Amino acid sequence: MKDFKSYTILKIDTSQLSLLKEPFGVLIKDEKINKDSLDRELEKAHKIITVGDTTTEKLVRLGYIPDISVVDGKEKRIKKDRIFEYPTDKILHFENKPGELDEHIITEIQQLTQNKLESKIKFIIEGEEDLVALPFLMFSPDNWVICYGQPQPYHGLVIVHVNEDSRTRAKLIFNRVFNI
Length: 180
Known about the structure:
This protein is an alpha/beta fold. The chain has helices at 35-42, 53-61, 103-114, 133-139, 164-177, and strands at residues 9-11, 26-29, 47-51, 68-71, 74-75, 78-79, 90-96, 100-102, 121-127, 144-150, 156-161. The protein has one domain.
């Protein structure tokens, strides 16, 4: 894999978008998302990362404050009327255009996932946050869990238990969708 420091902005190859459509982990359908279903999936998680406003809000409302959350103030690309608040220790702001991934976000994710994470961190993305899940999947240690929303046709919450297999799969997909 190339050194990300040599990139400023990575642009997605739209011909590879189908690689991002399938759920990457365990899919919990919207109507089955509840405290019990989350408890079963998250009970052994060392750290929990949420990507997306709706995903983050669902987990917080069910008693899970993510260690890292990634939000953009939108739901299905429509600006929300109000920002959902929850306890965090640190807020980081980034710009990230739709269909792109800024190197600063990747670098921050690499640093956060390699260090002992002791505070609750919120990434606020000006633009679009969806693709930020991939570098979290690539760089998070074993037993961290990444949660993100799954759009049509599946509709639900995807929970990925990070391990060597999920990291390898994320790297392969990342390299293909960004032509690396």
